[in-house]
Amino acid sequence: MRWLVGWSSASTGLRPRQAAPGPPPHAPHGSTPDGTGLGYGTYAPGPGAGAESVGIDDEDGGLLTPVGARLLWGGPDPLWAVGDWRPDEIRVVGADADTRIAVLGTCAATDEQLRVGLFAARGGALRHLTAWPGSYTAVVQAARRTTVLGDLAGARPVFHTPWAHGTAYATAALPLADLIGAPLDIGHLAALLALPDVPEAVHDTTPFLGVHRIPPGHALILRNGAREIAGYEPVASLAVAAPATDARSAVDGVRDALVEAVRARLDAPRHVPAFDADPGPVPGMGPHERRAARGLPAPGMGADLSGGPASATLALLAAGLPGLPGTVLGHGSGAGERLRALTFNDLSAAGSGAGTERAAELAADPRLHHVVVTGAEDALPFAELDGPLTDEPGPTLAVAARHRLRLQSGSADHLTGHGARQVLDAHPARLADLLMDRRRRNLVRPVAALTRADGSATVPARVYAAARRLARTPYRAGIESAADRLLHRTFDESPGAVGASLAALTWARPGPAARWLTGEALAEVSFRLADAAARPGPGPGQRPGEFRARAALARHAADLRVLEQAAEVRFQRLHTPYLDNQVVRACRALPESLRVRPGARAEVLRTVLEGAGVTELPTGWGAPEPGAAATAARTGLRVAMAELVALFDTPFLAQTGLVEARVVRRALRGAADGDPLPVDGLTQLVSVELWLRRLATRRGSCWTGTSPRRQRAVPEGIAPAQRGALGAAGRG
Predict the structure, then answer these.
(1) Is the dihedral of CA 194, 198, 201, 204 positive or negative?
(2) How far from 722 is each of 43, 514, 658, 728, CA to CA, in Å?
(3) Average pLDDT, the chain
(4) DSSP secondary-structure letter at 149?
(5) What is the C-alpha R_g of the chain?
(6) Phi/psi at 371 (5° precision)
(7) What is the three-class DSSP state of 494?
(8) Is 717 part of any domain?
(9) Domain limits at 678?
(10) Are 136 and 103 in contact (CB under 8 A)?
């Protein structure tokens, strides 16, 4: 894991401290730690005043420092980078002694652009700091004001918590939970299971009480320890209608944004994994297989090539851009001229050959070096239940071993197509947006596609009625309806594509795991929704389809972040250009009439490739493979049934009052026997249980220093919940 962590201290209410033996780093000789010469402040360099001795001043008189941290700047508001950051992934540019910007991640801006942006940000303009190609986190310090910017998708979140008369912040929740010794927020876990796609249910909470998250598209602004959360995206006006967007220019904007996103990765320095000395030949294994067996990626740049349009577009764009897109010169095949394209062939899933065949046809391009990774039962979901502790729970914990097997044969910098469906496809709730705009003709194509899939003549009337009802339902009424469904345990939904579309035509709906939660847990989530209904709505000009689409994107970005941590391969970086800020903005500019067409994502990406000079695409480009993930999950569930039932013999989920163990065990056996139960809901239960077990067996902390306190999250352990514990946790 990699994160940044910092602190904004208060300017008042601090006890006096003796001057440190030496000046802080980069401070004039004779200055005091807080730079005032008065001997007050909470920035406290230790003996020698080295970078590693700068820490957060505990109220008990100790000094706390992040483990394995690199100090980016000191002073009363210090900032650290923690983890295995590459040298080119951290840049700090300063305008003067009190004004500086730190950018962590992949950012295509030059130092001069960072300096110009820093001057503008000092005056309060923030949005342009998020408009450079790449995926990064920007932190701006202007005197005693610190601004931390999150991204639009939520793949790079920002967390904060009060601490020692100030505010501590980080890009991970676990370090802050360790800092304050936060207990577990059982109410948050209940909301995450009951309503995973409803941001009102979790609001700004995390699995740890007292640690809060800023929403996507917002910035955390700290002034002398006081915090403020502000959005940096323009808000739609209710008085003046937005100008109509031309479809062609919108698609051109998506193409330009994607090309710049890929170019930002290609222009970054290439990396060769350390400890890459080949110990010698192994019978039946080439150099790439030997490297993958040692858990090391190949040097240079690579990309997924699953056969779908999202990953194929990135691979073809990267291979076609000028320069050497592939491996480092002298390492690997093709003398650095070919892009390493990775395809996973699931031998345990029947009917998965169409995507593999399309990938092989695409890989016939001489600029691509095709690598096929095969997996059998050992690569099924639930095949491996051990793994690292992630920052938060997520359903991808159950399939992390499957992804790790694939990524071990990837490259040091690996492009993936994650997020394309969420930023390009139309959420079914957008049909209500079309009705609100009186664009009934645009409903013809999606409704006709659903009619062909279902074969029923009543589909158009049912879909139109559901979309019309959603268009006329206020936000508050929709949230209250979801709370009522939880209280009355109303989880019945129609099967098939039509049933899923009808269920999605709501402001909020229960998730697939809600049916297995206890009544107390559902009541707690219903209470949270009642609080959400009393708060202001999603904002002026926000419509239900757009609102649901942004919530789905945020949920996917959070799951992807869990996947990156759970399936992490040493020395490897996963890149998701579709979740870059500029790509997300370009995709949001696509008109809804274009989005709702069947196959719109494949057509948009085809146009993107044609604009980049790629015209020959295989037959079946963009054809979906329905049920592939669900089939693999059900097969993995059946193969790992004994281990999963043992996992729920005495589960932590039951101890916390969220589920009844016998009910979950019965559901697992029923799903393995073929009962029509939502396997994705069971996957969520298994993933949260795995996360709780890893959290309970965790040793150590993210902090070290002289503080007498024991700095560790969930210090009391995961104890059985008492009556009313869920309600108390949710209100904390």
Answers:
(1) positive
(2) 41, 21, 12, 10
(3) 84
(4) E
(5) 26
(6) -125, 125
(7) coil
(8) no
(9) 631-704
(10) yes
